[in-house]
Amino acid sequence: MLLIKVMSCLLPLAMGLRVQRSSGTLVDFTDPKVQGHLDALVRMAQSCVIKVRATPKDVRAYFTNSSPVSRSGQCFAACMLEQSDVINHGKVNRELLVHLASLVNGKNSRVVRKLNTVSRLCLDSIDGMSDRCQLASTYNDCLNENMIEFAFPLDIAEEAVRKMPFHLIQPKLPNISINSRRT
Fold this sequence. Notes:
It contains eight helices and four strands, in the order αββαααββαααα. By secondary structure, it is mainly alpha-helical. The protein is globular.
């Protein structure tokens, strides 16, 4: 079995856990290996929800290959990519991304061949960026835009959103000093 870190690197963009919308299924979602990868991805997302205080809209955007709707959505993408080591210290490890895709899809699969090309092109979209959340979000958006034929089925994306621990994120409360209260 692959390490969780490797398994969780399966981006909701082109890592093979996808169906082709118009011309049939690319992946058998009943395959235990695929289910294991999906489970690992959900566990990683759960951690990232808590870490960056992501909202349901943020997670839904990520899992449906949409651009983030907020700063926390951008940081959610960064967390997902950083936890998988695809992005480390502001640098994209394109080779790791392609390698991890090949673990699920096979080295010569259509997904991997296209990802190899697109991932290289997307490096240009982040040239000069230093903000980690913007960098990750922009890179992920570029991959999504260029690999549009690979997308999570909506029911799987929604199921992933339902599994997120949004209830554990406490709203930010005003900071009230004890000295400022009057009795």
